[in-house]
Amino acid sequence: MGSGAWKIEKRDDFRSETFKEENVLENGTLSIIVLGASGDLAKKKTFPALFHLFKQGFLNPNEVHIFGYARTKISDDELRSRIRGYLIQGASSKDLEGVTKFLQLIKYVSGSYDGEEGFRQLDKEIAVHEDSKNSADGSSRRLFYLALPPSVYPSVCGMIKNYCMNNSDHGGWTRIVVEKPFGKDLESAEKLSNQIGELFDESQIYRIDHYLGKELVQNLLVLRFANRFFLPLWNRDNIENVQIVFREDFGTEGRGGYFDEYGIIRDIIQNHLLQVLCLVAMEKPVSLKPEHIRDEKVKVLQSVLPINDDEVVLGQYDGYTDDPTVPDHSNTPTFSTVVLRIHNERWEGVPFILKAGKALNSRKAEIRVQFKDVPGDIFRCKKQGRNEFVIRLQPSEAMYMKLTVKQPGLEMSTVQSELDLSYGQRYQGVAIPEAYERLILDTIKGDQQHFVRRDELKAAWEIFTPLLHRIDNGELNPLPYKPGSRGPEAADALLEKAGYVQTHGYIWIPPTL
Ligand SMILES: NC(=O)C1=CN([C@@H]2O[C@H](COP(=O)(O)OP(=O)(O)OC[C@H]3O[C@@H](n4cnc5c(N)ncnc54)[C@H](OP(=O)(O)O)[C@@H]3O)[C@@H](O)[C@H]2O)C=CC1
Ligand SMILES: O=C1O[C@H](COP(=O)(O)O)[C@@H](O)[C@H](O)[C@H]1O
C-alpha cells in the first residue's frame, strides 16, 4: 500500500465507544463564554481554536453562540475586528466567508469580575440565545472558559455559580475551563482548588494544560501500550536516561510582567513537561477511561523523590530585566534544567531530565529516551553512540529511532542511522489539529482524560514547591546566558553528570518533501 492510501481512523468513531460520558444531553443550545475576551490568550488561542472547530462542523451555528466577557468597554464589532486578524492568517477565500459567519456568532458583554451586574447581564444574553434557539426538549449547555489571571478565578467562579448556571429546567450542563498556572505553590494551589471546589464538582472543572492536546503527546499511550517491542524495553534495565525538553527562540515578549511572577519552572516545567513525564513513565492503565489514566499519572507523581539542589541549573538570559515590567534585580529563571528521580520498580536510578528555556538558539519540544550501552560490544560501536528514541512534539512532528547499522559497502564497519517516522512525509495532506482545538472539543463532549485532576495538580506542586521556595527566597540564583545560545554551560555539564552521552558527528535531518 502506498503512503497516499494510509487510512486515518476517524476521531469521532474511536472516541464514542471508549469515552462516552453517560447521562449527558448533547443536543440543544451550546453557549461558549470566553471570560478575559480582551486578552492575549483569547485572541491568539481560544477564538482561533473555536473558529477551527466551527470550520470543521463541530460547532453547529443553529445551536452555538459565543460570548466574550471582560472589563474593557468595547462593542461586539470591536471585539470581532480584534480577533479577525488571528483567524484570517493563511485563510483561503472560502475560509474568509467562514470567518465572517463565525464572527457573527460572537457577542460581547462588558462587566467586572466581582460584581453581579455584569454577570446578570451575561446570563440574560445567554438566556435570550437559549430561548430563541432551543426546541422544547433541547438542553442548555454552558461552557465558561476562564482566559484570565488565576487571581480572579475565585470571584469569577462565584459569580458564575450565583448568576450564570444553566437553567436546570432545560437540562444540560455548566462546565468551567481554567488555565494554568493553577496557583503559585502547593498552598496557594490547594486554596484555589478549595475555593473552586466549593462551587463546582470535579466533573465540571476542566484544568487545561495544552501540552496534553498535542498530537504526539496524545500518541504516547498508544505508542507505549500498543506496541509489543516497547513493552520489555521501557524500564531501568534498558533505559539510561530520559530528557524532556522545551526550547523557545524568543524571550518573554510583552509578557514580562506575568512571567516574572512565575518563572520558567511554574510556566513550563511544573505543568507541561511534568504532564509529559507522567505519560512517559506511568504504568499501563486498567482502561482508557479518564479516571484510570489519571490514577496512574498520580501514582508516578507521588513516586518522584525530593529534588536535589545539585541536580538543578537555573539561568536568566541577558537583557531579560530590560523589560520595563520586570524588576531590575529580578532573580526569576528563564531557563532551568531539573533532574527528577522516580522511586519505583520500573524507574529506580533512571534520571528524568526536564529542561526548559526562553530566548535559546532554537524552538523545539521533544522527548529523548537514551538506551544503555550494548553489553559485550563486539563491534566496538560505542563510538557510534547509544540507541535513542526521540519523539519530536514540535515543530514538524516526528519520531525517530537512532540505531547502529553496518556502513553500506564492502567493509564491515558500523555507522549511526535512524528509523524515521516524520509526520509531514508519512501523513501527507493530514492536518494536525491545534492542541486547544482538541481540548475545547473534549470539554464540550465531557471527556476529562486530557485534563488535570485535582490530586494530580496537588502531587505536581508537592514536587516543585520546596525548590520554588528556595528560589523565591534567593537561596538559588540563575546563571546569566546569552540570548540565542544553548543556555548556561552548567546545564550541559549537569546532563553529562546525569549520564547522558551525546552522539558526536550525527545529526538527524528531517526529510523534506
Ligand atoms: N497568553 C498565553 O499565551 C497563555 C496564557 N495562559 C494563561 O491564560 C490566562 C490568560 O492569559 P493572558 O490572556 O495572557 O492574560 P492577559 O494578561 O492578556 O489577561 C486576560 C484578560 O484578563 C483581564 N485582566 C488582566 N489582568 C487582570 C487583573 N490583574 N485583574 C483582573 N483582570 C485582569 C484583562 O481584561 P479586561 O481588563 O478587559 O477585563 C485581560 O485582557 C492566564 O492564566 C495565563 O497564565 C496559558 C497559556 C498560554
Ligand atoms: O503555556 C505556555 O506555553 C507557551 C508555549 O506553547 P507552545 O504550544 O507554543 O509550545 C509558552 O510560550 C508560554 O510562555 C507558556 O505560558
UniProtKB/TrEMBL annotation:
Catalyzes the rate-limiting step of the oxidative pentose-phosphate pathway, which represents a route for the dissimilation of carbohydrates besides glycolysis. It is an enzyme of class 1 (oxidoreductase). GO terms for biological process: glucose metabolic process; pentose-phosphate shunt, oxidative branch. It is found in: Cytoplasm. InterPro entries: G6P_DH, G6P_DH_AS, G6P_DH_C, G6P_DH_NAD-bd, NAD(P)-bd_dom_sf. Transmembrane segments: none annotated. The lineage of its organism: Eukaryota, Viridiplantae, Streptophyta, Embryophyta, Tracheophyta. Keywords: Carbohydrate metabolism, Cytoplasm, Glucose metabolism, NADP, Oxidoreductase. GO terms for molecular function: glucose-6-phosphate dehydrogenase activity; NADP binding. Residues 221-500 form the Glucose-6-phosphate dehydrogenase C-terminal domain. Pathway: Carbohydrate degradation; pentose phosphate pathway; D-ribulose 5-phosphate from D-glucose 6-phosphate (oxidative stage): step 1/3. One of its GO terms (cellular component) is cytosol. This is Glucose-6-phosphate 1-dehydrogenase. Residues 33-219 form the Glucose-6-phosphate dehydrogenase NAD-binding domain. Belongs to the glucose-6-phosphate dehydrogenase family. Its main location: cytoplasm. Its EC number is 1.1.1.49. It comes from the Eukaryota. SUPFAM superfamilies: Glyceraldehyde-3-phosphate dehydrogenase-like, C-terminal domain (SSF55347), NAD(P)-binding Rossmann-fold domains (SSF51735). It catalyses: D-glucose 6-phosphate + NADP(+) = 6-phospho-D-glucono-1,5-lactone + NADPH + H(+).
